[in-house]
Amino acid sequence: MHTDLKSLRYFATLADTLSFTVAANKLGMTQPALSIAMQRLEERVGVELLRRTSRHVILTPAGEAYARGAREILALVDQVERTTAEVASGQEGLCRIGFVQSASFDVVPPILRSVQDLAPRVRLQLSEVTSIDQLRQLIDGQLDIGLVRQAVHSFADLSLTLVHEQRMVAALPATHKLAANSSLQLSALRSEVFLMVPDQRSPALNARVRAACEAAGYRPRASLEAVEMATILSFVGEGLGVALLPANCRRFADRTVSLIDLEDANDHLNLPLYLAHRKVERDLTVRRIIDIALRSLSKLYPRQSASLP
């Protein structure tokens, strides 16, 4: 027994109207054609679904059950078709976004707000991942968008857009002799112990810290590592060392820490952030979220965005 969707629609419409005349008009067909279609449906099902009177149509108990099932099936089919169309047009689907820890403070939230406003039916899957691992996962298809600190040109299949560049600041204990300064030279921290994030966690940040210190004439002496920047700030506040951190860490610093601008004309102290994605992206949902993210960040950081070759 095979019943097609057309027959289900015919029967559901008739069950709703209980009139061959009204149902036929709604379906855009003649009354005799609808009557024949219902007779054939009953023959396929093998039970009486409705009783005809001179004025009305009455559903049998079996017809009532069949009508409920028909409505559920038709509603499901309609939902599947709508969902398919929305996914195909980029209105619905999944987008997986990776980001480095420091981007979670002031870069990721505006992207999420924009997606909620402009693509509310798109599901976002967020992961905090190191820059190099994000780039690998983009190539492997495990991520769709990355917010990374490293522009690695060996990943030729990826497109990277510079969306933001922020200056690093020096984090000193509030009791430090230089804590009252509004700015300082990096060379003034030559004798200090540096607190750093583990290399496997944030290799791009550490590479810039080391390069900046070397440009100032010394290698930083690092004896303590902590995964979270908030933890590093806490350790700095306890007098366990100093740190170079992105300027947006100010929101986590309390009165035990002084965050001081650095005077050095040193490009290593500028910490870039790139939005990375595959150059060839076939998923319309992902392409839409990439566009929303880039537009959101260009408004947040005007005149900073630039695509890398």
Automatic annotation (TrEMBL):
Source species, domain of life: Bacteria
Entry-linked InterPro entries: LysR_HTH_N, LysR_subst-bd, WH-like_DNA-bd_sf, WH_DNA-bd_sf
GO MF annotation list: DNA binding; DNA-binding transcription factor activity
Keyword Protein transport (UniProt): no
Record field: transmembrane: none
Keywords linked to the UniProt accession: DNA-binding, Transcription, Transcription regulation
Pfam families listed in its UniProt record: HTH_1, LysR_substrate
Domain HTH lysR-type residues, every copy: 3-60
Gene Ontology CC terms: protein-DNA complex
Family statement: Belongs to the LysR transcriptional regulatory family.
Name of the protein in its database record: HTH lysR-type domain-containing protein
Source species taxonomy: Bacteria, Pseudomonadati, Pseudomonadota, Betaproteobacteria, Burkholderiales
